[in-house]
Design brief:
developmental protein; cytokine activity; binds 2-acetamido-2-deoxy-beta-D-glucopyranose; 4-stranded mixed β-sheet; extracellular matrix; 9 strands; 350 residues; Wnt_C; alpha/beta
C-alpha cells in the first residue's frame, strides 16, 4: 500500500503533501496500522488547505506560491513569517476538516456522529440532539499527523505547532449550530441542536483575518539551545492564545523578485479594477500589487468569442450564435508610463 501511494501519487503531489506523506509513511512503520486508513484523507485535506490558501491570497502580493509550501525543516531555508504561519494553520485546518467530514460521510468504521452531549441542556430552550460533526475525532487524528512533522525543539517548531493548533481552533470556532423545532404543530417550544462544519471557505476567511492580526514573537536568537532557552520558548507561546497566529520574522518585500527566497515579485501579475461585483480588497488590488510596488497598470484588451443566444429547435438541435465580447484585463508592468497619461496612473495610499 505504501508503495502504491508512492508510485501513483508522488507525481502529482505538492511539496507539502509529499512531506506529509513522508510523515505518514514514517508513522506507519512505528505507529498503529489503523492510521493507514486516514492517509488519503490527510493528503486530500492538505491539498484543500493549499487551494484555500491560493484563493484567499489571489489578490495579495504574496499569493501562496508552491515554493511557500515547502515547510520542511531539512531545507534550511525555513521561513517563519506571517505567511508561513498562515500556511501551517490552513493546512492543519484542511486536514482536520477533511477527516471530520469524511467521518460524517461514514468513510471510517471507527467513528460517527458526536452524540456525547445529546440529551443535555445546551442553552435556553434547546437541548443537544441529532448528529454533530465529530470534530473531536478530526482534531485528534489530524494532530497526530500534522504535528508529528515538527521534530525540533526550537522556536520555529514551537511557532509551527502553535499555528497548527490555531488552524484546528478555526475549524472548531466556525462550526454552526443547526436546530430543529419540536412542539405542537411546530410551535417550537423546544429545539434540539447539533453542530455542523461550515463551508471550508469560511474557515479560510477566518484564518485570513487572523493572518492580518498575527502576533510577532521576538525569540529567534539563540533560544532553543539550552533547557532554559526551551523553557523560555514554551512560556512565551503558552502566554499567547492558540486562536491567534504567531510569527517570528518579518516578511520580505513581496513586491520584488528575490531568487534566493524563490519570490517572483508582482511584475506581470493580473489585478482587478471594475466590472464584476468586487469586494473592497479586490478593488484595491491594482494599487496594492502595482502602484504601491512602483509598477504601472497596463490595460490589455482582448476579444473573446463564445456561444450565445442559443435556441432549441424541434427536434433535436440547439443552434447558437457566436458572440464577441470585449474584455479588459489589467496587469502590473514595468513599462514606462507616458508622461501625463493620467488614465492608468497608479494610485497612492490614501
Ligand atoms: C475523504 O475525502 C476526500 C476528499 O474530500 C477524498 O479524496 C477521500 O478519498 C475521502 N475518503 C477517504 C476514505 O479517505
Ligand atoms: C533577498 O532576500 C534576502 C533575505 O531577506 C535578502 O538578504 C536579499 O538582499 C534579497 N535579495 C534581493 C535581490 O533583494
Amino acid at each position: 500500500f505504501v508503495h502504491n501511494v508512492s508510485l501513483v501519487k508522488l507525481v502529482t503531489l505538492s511539496l507539502y503533501q509529499l512531506y506529509l506523506l513522508k510523515s505518514v509513511n514514517n508513522f506507519l512503520m512505528t505507529g498503529p496500522k489503523a492510521y493507514l486508513i486516514y492517509s488519503s484523507s490527510v493528503a486530500a485535506g492538505a491539498q484543500s488547505g493549499i487551494e484555500e490558501c491560493k484563493y484567499q491570497f489571489a489578490w495579495d502580493r504574496w499569493n501562496c506560491p508552491e515554493r511557500a509550501l515547502q515547510l520542511s525543516s531539512h531545507g534550511g531555508l525555513r521561513s517563519a513569517n506571517r505567511e508561513t504561519a498562515f500556511v501551517h494553520a490552513i493546512s492543519s485546518a484542511g486536514v482536520m476538516y477533511t477527516l471530520t467530514r469524511n467521518c460524517s460521510l461514514g468513510d471510517f468504521d471507527n467513528c460517527g456522529c458526536d452524540d456525547s452531549r445529546n440529551g443535555q441542556l445546551g442553552g435556553q430552550g434547546w437541548l443537544w440532539g441529532g448528529c454533530s460533526d465529530n470534530v473531536g475525532f478530526g482534531e485528534a487524528i489530524s494532530k497526530q499527523f500534522v504535528d508529528a512533522l515538527e521534530t525540533g525543539q526550537d522556536a520555529r517548531a514551537a511557532m509551527n505547532l502553535h499555528n497548527n493548533e490555531a488552524g484546528r481552533k478555526a475549524v472548531k470556532g466556525t462550526m454552526k449550530r443547526t436546530c430543529k423545532c419540536h412542539g405542537v404543530s411546530g410551535s417550537c417550544t423546544t429545539q434540539t441542536c447539533w453542530l455542523q462544519l461550515p463551508e471550508f471557505r469560511e474557515v479560510g476567511a477566518h484564518l485570513k483575518e487572523k493572518y492580518h492580526a498575527a502576533l510577532k514573537v521576538d525569540l529567534l536568537q539563540g533560544a532553543g539551545n539550552s533547557a532554559a532557552g526551551r523553557g523560555a520558548i514554551a512560556d512565551t507561546f503558552r502566554s499567547i492564545s492558540t486562536r491567534e497566529l504567531v510569527h517570528l520574522e518579518d516578511s520580505p518585500d513581496y513586491c520584488l523578485e528575490n531568487k534566493t527566497l524563490g519570490l517572483l515579485g508582482t511584475e506581470g501579475r493580473e489585478c482587478l479594477r471594475r466590472g464584476r461585483a468586487l469586494g473592497r480588497w479586490e478593488r484595491r488590488s491594482c494599487r496594492r500589487l502595482c502602484g504601491d510596488c512602483g509598477l504601472a497598470v497596463e490595460e490589455r484588451r482582448a476579444e473573446t468569442v463564445s456561444s450565445c443566444n442559443c435556441k432549441f429547435h424541434w427536434c433535436c438541435a440547439v443552434r447558437c450564435e457566436q458572440c464577441r465580447r470585449r474584455v479588459t484585463k489589467y496587469f502590473c508592468s514595468r513599462a514606462e508610463r507616458p508622461r501625463g497619461g493620467a488614465a492608468h496612473k497608479p494610485g497612492r495610499k490614501p
